[in-house]
Write the structure tokens for this entry.
Amino acid sequence: MKILRTIADVRAAVREARSDGRTVGLVPTMGAFHDGHLSLMRRAREQNDLVVVSLFVNPTQFGANEDLGAYPRDEARDAALAEAEGVDILFAPPASEIYPDGFATNIHVAGLTDVLDGAARGPHHFDGVATVVTKLFGIVRPDVAYFGQKDAQQVLVVRRVVRDLDLDVRIEACPIVREADGLAMSSRNVYLDADARAQATALNRALDAAASVFEAGERDGDGILSAAGRVLADAGITPEYLELRDAMTLEPVARVEGDALLAVAAHVGAARLIDNHLLSAPKDA
Ligand code: AMP
């Protein structure tokens, strides 16, 4: 595996692969790898000749009061894990390579970013994501890019950028990888002390409780949300949001009739965590 720092070096490596007719898969990450990241790399490895993983803690998607400075960073460990997954190129640029002096462009996806994490974290968050992902697509020009369903709204935002800007890349969303007790894997789980780690399991238990009432026939949004809300309350968690939204448009859903995204965000101990489940009802149910 090569570790590359410059756009020019990545372009040269990808150009060489392409001229041999090889396909290129890209996994964008901010590092601190866990099995969620590795699952994306595995999928990319299965489907492509050349696998590029980007490792860049993107400053523009963090708010002033967020955890940019504290975000876990261990490039040597990440490089070893990526190499063990058969990754070909780890692109780990300095911030100045991505945002040189004079950088002035911002990609804003209207509508989809007004809700959930866009509302909770502010517009800079998805603007930062959309802009850096578009740059990565321009640098690597992958055939396929892999994202985790853990960040369901991010997947929708990236798909919209690709559609609206006619980018020639297929977006593949991969399932959420969880710890044995159901906690969604996240680089931010390292912020949890033992008590908060135990408390954090309530997020997925809450979503499971909602999914259970849904599977038992509940279609009313408030009924579904209150099943989840009770589990959070019992665990002493006040969610930042707990919402049911259309899985494609993120419009609010009062009654589940198609695919709905049940999404939660909460501060637990020192971490801000997010999780989600998809609820799918047949349209004529
Ligand atoms: P991050 O490094 O947190 O920006 O994540 C990089 C990619 O890994 C994103 O597409 C995430 O959605 C994905 N990812 C993070 N956690 C998980 C998880 N538990 N399961 C699946 N994918 C994940």
